[in-house]
Amino acid sequence: MIDINLIRNSPDLVKQNLKKRFQENKMAWVDEIIKGYSEALKLKKEIEELRRKRNIISLEINKLKKEGKTASNEIKEAKDLPLKISELEEKQVKLKEKINHYMLRIPNILESKVPIGEDASKNKEIKREGKPVKPKFELKNHVELAESLNVADFEAGRNNAGQGFNYLLGDLALLDLALQRYGIDFLLKQKFKVVVPPMMLNKLTLAGAVDLEAFEQVIYKVEDEDLYMIGTAEHSLVSLMKNKSINDKDLPIKICAVTPCFRKEIGGHGVDMKGLFRMHQFNKVEQVIYCKPEDSLKYLKYTQELTEKFFKSLKIPFRVIEICSGDLGGKFAKQYDIEAWFPRQNEYKEVTSAGSCTDYQARRLNIKLLRDGKKEKEYVHILNNTMVATSRAMVAILENYQQKDGSVKIPLVLQKYMNGKKTIK
Questions:
Q1: Which structural domain, as residue segments, surrounds residue 132?
Q2: Residues 210-230: pLDDT tens digits?
Q3: Do 334 and 214 belong to one domain?
Q4: CATH of the domain at 32
Q5: Domain count, the chain
Q6: Could you please report the per-residue DSSP string of 192-261?
Q7: Domain end: 77, 103, 129, which one?
């Protein structure tokens, strides 16, 4: 969430930010927060005054009793005070819940250079890497190709779990594992620390890591438990430092993980959206960086360039997109996507996302920054980026490395992770 003092002191800035995000329907929430905060302060003073009065009356009752005097009026007044305090405290709780409801849904403040646009059609292309090759033969779609190579059983996945679940077999399973291990090794060389995180989180923790709308649209809940399946390792990684304070001398902290990811909503239609491209369960290598606020943009550039180098090493053509204001998730201040080239579909499609959440997640998760000589409360900045989502990377490989005889070459950098195998036949 953003700083409530920013909302109180600069409401026009927050409203302008909502306008840039094409979320004018939330502007009234800014006024509700300010009004609610003012009411909450009045309630707090009233409760404190009644508690003070109760203490004074208690002392007066004790004094009168010691003096042998009647204290019936004071006793009656003292009996009434707890009910009045309780009623005001109940109002206070409801008011805080109302403020919190709006606060958790006000999006992050956009970085100043984010392109303004209502939807994905207004995203800005930054650059292209690699030359898209158009094959001289008709490419098979990845589902047909994988089945012809006997390296996937999509029907068994659908029958046993439903649409969006698959069985990877033999060399395709090895390719998935190769991408995972290569992604981790790539980050280890950059001094990232590997984490094996929980695959489930409780609601309070997850609410600090995700946009709340994701609970209905994306997140799987474990029945009869306060536990939810993670949609990405980011959720566990950004929560690692929950309720902790980090000394500025220990920053940046760079951590990574490889985990299954679970998503309820997969969307997409058509033959190229089936199979591996959109799944309820897939594997992903994720990177997260905690840093000082003044270094936020520097590390966004750093983590984005890491993933670009990764896809360059796979020799898969791609382009870099900066996400516009209307297409940007609520927790992000700025975001870049890498879109790989898919020759079968004759278009670029998203394979990674790198974003700066500034202090938005840190406030929700209470991750503070400690600086020598400074007493004011600060929060760290948190960035996250996909190193590789293996399912989409595999589709890109199956299309870009497909051969006329129906075999698939394995990218050179992955061959050592495939026991030296150079081709899937």
A1: 120-424
A2: 877 767 788 999 999 999 999
A3: yes
A4: 1.10.287.40
A5: 2
A6: PEE----SEE-HHHHHHHS-TTHHHHTPPBPTTSS-EE-SSHHHHHHHTTTT-EEEGGG--EEEEEEEEE
A7: 103
- Tens digits of per-residue pLDDT, 292-339? 999 999 999 999 999 999 999 999 999 999 999 999 999 999 999 999
Do 99 and 130 lie in a common domain? no
**Burial annotation 168-198 (CB, 10 A radius, 16+ → b, else e):** beebbebbbbbbbebbbebbeeeebeebebe
Residues in the chain: 425
Q: Which residues pair with 402 in a beta bridge?
A: 408
Do 21 and 165 share a domain, yes or no? no
Mode of pairing for the β-strands spanning 228-229 and 200-201: antiparallel
**Distance between CA 179 and CA 203 in Å, rounded?**
31
User: 405 with 260, same domain?
Assistant: yes
Nearest to 180 by CA among 65, 37, 285: 285
The pTM for the full model equals 0.90
User: Is the separation of the CB atoms in 286 and 237 below 8 Å?
Assistant: yes
Radius of gyration of the chain (CA): 27
Q: What stretch of H or E contains 80?
A: helix 72-103
Exposed/middle/buried for residue 361 (C-beta within 10 Å: 0-12, 13-18, 19+):
buried
